[in-house]
Amino acid sequence: xxxxxxxxxxxxxxxxxxxxxxxxxxxxxxxxxxxxxxxxxxxxxxxxxxxxxxxxxxxxxxxxxxxxxxxxxxxxxxxxxxxxxxxxxxxxxxxxxxxxxxxxxxxxxxxxxxxxxxxxxxxxxxxxxxxxxxxxxxxxxxxxxxxxxxxxxxxxxxxxxxxxxxxxxxxxxxxxxxxxxxxxxxxxxxxxxxxxxxxxxxxxxxxxxxxxxxxxxxxxxxxxxxxxxxxxxxxxxxxxxxxxxxxxxxxxxxxxxxxxxxxxxxxxxxxxxxxxxxxxxxxxxxxxxxxxxxxxxxxxxxxxxxxxxxxxxxxxxxxxxxxxxxxxxxxxxxxxxxxxxxxxxxxxxxxxxxxxxxxxxxxxxxxxxxxxxxxxxxxxxxxxxxxxxxxxxxxxxxxxxxxxxxxxxxxxxxxxxxxxxxxxxxxxxxxxxxxxxxxxxx
Length: 442
What we know:
Blueprint: E1 7-10, H1 18-26, E2 30-34, H2 48-63, E3 68-74, E4 77-84, E5 98-101, E6 104-107, H3 110-121, H4 140-153, H5 158-161, H6 165-171, E7 175-176, E8 179-180, H7 182-188, E9 201-207, E10 210-217, H8 221-236, E11 240-244, E12 247-251, H9 256-269, E13 278-282, E14 286-292, H10 301-305, H11 315-323, H12 333-344, E15 350-354, E16 357-363, H13 384-394, H14 400-407, H15 411-423, E17 427-430, E18 437-440
Helix pairs in contact: 4-8, 8-9, 9-12, 14-15
């Protein structure tokens, strides 16, 4: 029997091994053998009788728990077995919380400790009440989005949605003692940053290490969920165009269903208490979506790609997104992301875990990449129109007012030049004024 996640061998007893017992109690339980070498060879203990009295007392006095302590014999040598059960409440050693993960003992600190304590007590961060936001302060558009999507998905009936907002929140279990839970405020309050300063989404377009342009999407979580995907696909990505008979087919380099699921997962599982926004970095060949979060205890990046149960970091927020039809409730989100990438013909995503940050990496479908158009030359050379085309070539997201700063020209003059280019078919505007971009036509 070798050492593993649930077994530890020690040659002799030291009081510091109470930390190992603490770690087992906080995790899945385990056994510690005193009087064995690392290779499993029995050395025995010389003071077995005294240890059989001291160890149970020290466990109870220091940790406040009870463990079975057994005296075993092998080839005439006595050694001790300490059997530790997993405990439902947090166990500490002199105020320190230890946890057995794999074959190592870790002392929990910071967000890892907060997450552990909440999981043991059954209280989640998003379930805590807020005192400075009332139901009357919540955002009408956020409720409209929720009602529209919940009805469309069939997750809620029309009669269950046509009720006052306070009743709807109560039906969604977002009230506690007539106060809003943090989840309710974040999902429906337009100024979510008043609650958590980092509660927004940041999107950046990169070329290598150079940031070309960026956006920030603010508002309630439901407003962000409603806007982020359209912004990415209208402003930050271009589709390769092909034709099937007479039907125009647009293929984007990143699977829209996969990116949408990944963004929703980030909004739901983000540890907003870190005050860090969700960050989406888009390059020609790759897209990264990252958020502050912690994996459930014992999980790794590999666990995410395997079949697993649903363990949302913010269960109440997840419930709202489920009722809106944004997500499933069976831990199938990552499988859906992988399936969407396969259907596009792209590589499966890669999950990267850095401490308290989880990142999903999408590789672009090479056949769907659109090469950057060249700036038309000829008669336009040296003209204001030519300078505008160069600006659009370098940054398609520029607005007319932003162009005036680089061109040293008035806004009306720039508008006339843009109208001329559009009428001649050299450029067109894709998307709306707020999130759209310019496209140069070859």
